[in-house]
Design a protein that fits this description.
Protein name: Sulfur carrier protein FdhD
CATH topology of the largest domain: Cytidine Deaminase, domain 2
Pfam families: FdhD-NarQ
Helix content: 25-40%
GO molecular function, one term: sulfur carrier activity
Strand content: 25-35%
Shape: globular
CATH superfamily of the largest domain: Cytidine Deaminase, domain 2
Order of helices and strands: EEEEEHEEHEEHEHHEEHEHEHEEE
Largest sheet: 6 strands, mixed
GO biological process, one term: Mo-molybdopterin cofactor biosynthetic process
Distance between the termini: 63 Å
Number of helices: 8
Structural class: alpha/beta
CATH architecture of the largest domain: 3-Layer(aba) Sandwich
Strand order of the largest sheet: 12-11-13-14-15-16
Main location: cytoplasm
Length: about 290
Amino acid sequence: MNARYRPDMSHAGLPPTQPVTAFDEYGEPRELHIADERPLTIYVDRYEIVTLMTLGREPEFLVIGYLKNQGLIKDLEEIVSVQVDWDVGAAAVVTRHGTGDWEEKLGKRTVTTGCGQGTVFGDIMEQLYDITITPVPLKQSTIYGLLKNLNEYNEVYRSAGAVHGCALCKDSEILSFVEDVGRHNAVDSIAGRMWIEDIGGDDKIFYTTGRLTSEMIIKVAQMNIPVLLSRSGITAMGLKLAQDLGVTLLSRAKGKHFLVYNGFEHVELDAELPAKAGERPPKRLHAG
């Protein structure tokens, strides 16, 4: 087998919304769309692992990314196939060597603050500090370009709301954008795609619409991505992990505003901004 190995996978993606009729405050009917949330139970060699609530747009990537980020499968070639069957709401994963000591791993879990209550299995927390993140320089102008480009996405959110979006980015270019009912599902779907398509994370930026919790830092670090950007806030544990692991952490990023909570030394302020209210514009120094 080579580095481009791909397991046998179904192609069971589903539309993310469904049409409904709602009545407004005047009693008038309105034809709208709502997020189509579905349960998907993951079985590995017939062993039930977890049930995820998902839109089901890229279920195979979601399953593979979930297994990777939980530390349950570390070698892609261990996965023989992933088959999703929505008639029974199940994803069947077949491996080469079975589940082994998974019962012990699955017995240790931390319920996280992810939407729908994400879960971290096994000894992920202990393994985190073996990860080395190499910081990358980040220009203010790149942040602004990326935020502008992201305005073209969030298709499901604009149509139906009730979802989170995540993106894998290179500079200001969006390489992959996924929406799901929980941000942890969106992250896992991108992680699965990265694993399948052999995409490295060391020069990438990860964007999320959700808050920056410990779970988000863990997942981004596992993908070896050095920059995490969000339009939402952060938690104290998320900040502590980012500091420990060396993840550049930016939040409240919208329009021209952002806050750098960790890694400010890696951010180059190269964009000209208007003076704050009541202040004079800064003097520019020119070479004589």
